[in-house]
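Whether sequence alone determines local backbone shape is best considered at the level of individual chains. In the encoding step, the backbone of a single protein was reduced to a row of integers, each denoting a local shape. For completeness, the protein is quoted in full, as a sequence line and a line of structure tokens.
***
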Amino acid sequence: MAAKVGLNMTDLECLDVIQMSGRVTAGELARRTGLSTGAMTTAIDRLVRAGYVERQDDPNDRRRVFVMARPDRLQALWAIYAPLQAAMEQLYEGWSEEELTRIATFMERATAVSATFVSGLQGD
């Protein structure tokens, strides 16, 4: 998907976090993705150049800048994802609410286990 829209995987992941958050600071985005602040600045610069996000000064703190997705540019991404979304919705229909909750719980726990493992590697 990233290559199809001219981004790399890191940029696409950052764009996903930005889009889900509404607006986010570079520091928050770095923490949520595990990137350094320097790498995050570079990723945001690429997303701005590509037209997917924009920076907005915080009116209450001149040192802080928010990063926000540009909805007009996201429509092209949503169009690409639409067939996947439809297929996933069709898949969900085959599972009960209880089964989906159980699957989601497993995935959340598996993600937490993976995150703990990766944090341990970074501490070495």
Remarks:
- The chain has a mean pLDDT of 90.
- Residues 94-124 form one domain.
- The chain is about 70% helix and 15% strand.
